[in-house]
UniProtKB/TrEMBL annotation, chain A:
Keywords: DNA-directed RNA polymerase, Sigma factor, Transcription, Transcription regulation. Residues 26-90 form the RNA polymerase sigma-70 region domain. The lineage of its organism: Bacteria, Pseudomonadati, Bacteroidota, Flavobacteriia, Flavobacteriales. Residues 122-172 form the RNA polymerase sigma factor 70 region 4 type domain. It comes from Flavobacterium palustre. GO terms for cellular component: DNA-directed RNA polymerase complex. This is DNA-directed RNA polymerase sigma-70 factor. It comes from the Bacteria. Belongs to the sigma-70 factor family. ECF subfamily.
UniProtKB/TrEMBL annotation, chain B:
This is FecR protein domain-containing protein. The chain crosses the membrane at residues 66-85. It comes from the Bacteria. The keyword Membrane applies. It comes from Flavobacterium palustre.
Length: 189, 172
């Protein structure tokens, strides 16, 4: 934790800021990209949001109060930037926070950097059927490997609620995938 | 040399390796990124951030203090140059005007040669004469002579003749 404090001090200090920021990019760029990508779906959008996120992080660093961990704070910025992007571009990309579920799979299929096989498409379809908040919780826990405490800080939801939501989602996905696989097996037989 | 994983553990961060992250997303979700995307993205972000930092311009109109200082300077200069409530003083008038006043008042003193005749205006003139007397003391005698000459222009010819005769007779 002392190292994190030192690192944050470097990020705030004018002389060391640029070097520390390069290190910050090395550490978090990829993780934040994947977090953003699952929210805005296409690579092109994720690229835009990632850049905006890091520019905002750079600007906001002097105001970082250190109430939460650096990683959680950055994740929250990335999450908010993604939501802002979706809101701003709802007319352009035909997706918004509200109808992201309806368009989720369509936009994913249009993305040139999506090459899902049958099972991956099935998983994506199952995820797209989930309520938006439930899908975000699942993604953050399963794919971004965030702790419930961290997700709770980002989404401002109680840990207990998050756990319940996550285990329900896992069960739902397992059932769906198994049903689909069983159905496929029956069809083959 | 410290690896990324070592730095992460130093910073008490997530142990999830970036490679694993990429693998998980591509194998399970079918999501891919262009080759060398993260390296390119990093340099792009850095260029944007550093350029923005270097060319950080603080517009003058956003600084309230600048406006206050500028307004104060203009106000001070304005008051110094233009005095809307100041009364015109004879001392501030050009020298020619002062001279004429001095001459006029002197003229009255010399010609009338009697304080009883002074009007209110002529008293003011005398005061002015006295005040400006310090400036023109050396030329007082000369100005009196001039005044006589000038005054003589407004005298009747027979009066002049009479006074000349008197002076000449006295001289003889």
């Amino acid at each position: 934790m002392a190292s994190e404090t030192n690192f944050i001090n470097q990020l705030i200090c004018d002389n060391q800021r640029d070097e520390a920021f390069k290190k910050l990019l090395d550490l978090y760029q990829e993780r934040l990209y994947w977090h953003i990508r699952k929210l805005v779906i296409t690579h092109e959008n994720a690229d835009d949001v990632l850049q905006n996120t890091f520019i905002r992080i750079y600007k906001s660093l002097p105001n970082f109060s250190q109430k939460s961990a650096l990683y959680t704070w950055m994740h929250k910025i990335a999450y908010n930037e993604s939501l802002r992007f979706l809101e701003q571009n709802k007319n352009k990309y035909h997706i918004s926070i509200d109808d992201v579920n309806k368009k989720y799979l369509d936009n994913l299929m249009e993305d040139t950097f999506f090459e899902g096989n049958e099972l991956q498409v099935k998983l994506q379809r199952t995820l797209s059927e989930l309520p938006e908040r439930q899908r975000q919780i699942f993604n953050m826990k399963y794919y971004d490997d965030l702790k419930f405490r961290e997700i709770s800080e980002i989404l401002d939801i109680k840990e207990g609620t998050l756990k319940t939501s996550y285990y329900n989602t896992v069960k739902h996905i397992e059932n769906n995938i198994l049903n689909i696989e069983n159905f496929s097996d029956k069809e083959v037989n | 040399m410290k690896t990324s994983k070592n730095i992460n553990s130093d910073l008490n961060l997530h142990e999830l390796n970036n490679e694993n992250l990429k693998k998980k997303h591509s194998e399970e979700l079918g999501l891919h990124v262009p080759e060398d995307y993260f390296a390119k993205s990093k340099s792009e972000i850095l260029s944007k951030v550093l350029v923005k930092q270097e060319s950080k311009i603080i517009p003058m109109y956003r600084k309230r203090s600048t406006w206050i200082v500028a307004a104060s300077i203009v106000l001070i200069l304005g008051i110094t140059v233009y005095k809307p409530f100041s009364v015109l003083n004879f001392n501030d008038s050009p020298t020619v005007v002062v001279d004429s006043v001095v001459n006029t008042s002197t003229e009255k003193v010399v010609v009338t040669d009697s304080p009883a005749v002074y009007s209110k205006d002529s008293q003011t003139d005398v005061v002015l004469t006295k005040e400006s007397g310090s400036i023109s003391t050396s030329s007082n005698v000369k100005s009196v002579e001039n005044d006589i000459v000038v005054e003589s222009l407004f005298m009747e010819e027979n009066e002049i003749n009479e006074s000349v005769n008197n002076y000449m007779l006295e001289d003889i």
